[in-house]
Amino acid sequence: MNPDLASSPLICSCYQQVAANEPLLFIGNENYRQIMTTIMYGISNCDTIKKAKKHLENNNVDYQFHDYRKQGLDLALLTELEALFGWEAMVNKRGTTYRQLSDEQKQQLDKELAMTLMLESPALIKRPILRTDKHHLIGFKAAEYDAIFA
């Protein structure tokens, strides 16, 4: 086997693992791609999350799903996501949670208040958030997902 293949993580539609501790042996298909770590963040009962998950599954994209309600949302993760997107892009102004904020909260919304509110109520965060090793997206548009995973 090519030593470069043995040391790099690859995926192929046609492979055989010789033994549990052996590298994968590729059989006949050279159309492999680098494995990406893909994580989708959101809330499982959200319709947009359901559409995005279905899209990834229909396109054979392996991903992990982080449900804010089940796995939680802490300040470290929220801060990391805010650094990628900015708090303004993360606030879902179309959702019920935002509409339920008082007029005073909406008028005074700044980074500090937004971060506090998103920690208290993760449903306030626009969904889904998708992260790969090289890309990060907020919201779901099939064409953007296709561009990443093509």
- CA-CA gap between termini: 27 Å
Count every helix, treating DSSP H or I runs of 4 or more residues as helices: 9
Morphology: elongated
Indicate the proportion of strand residues: 15-25%
What are the low-pLDDT stretches, counting only 5+ consecutive residues below 50? 1-34
Largest sheet: 4 strands, mixed
Radius of gyration: 19 Å
Question: How are the strands ordered across the major sheet?
Answer: 6-5-7-8
Q: How many β-strand stretches?
A: 8
H and E string: HEEEEEHEHHHHHHEEH
Class from secondary-structure proportions: alpha+beta
Structural account:
- It is a single chain.
- By secondary structure, the protein is α+β, with helices and mostly antiparallel strands.
- It has 9 helices and 8 strands.
- The chain has helices at 3-7, 47-58, 68-71, 75-85, 87-90, 96-99, 103-107, 111-120, 142-149, and strands at residues 10-11, 15-17, 24-26, 33-34, 39-42, 64-67, 129-131, 136-138.
- The two termini are 27 Å apart.
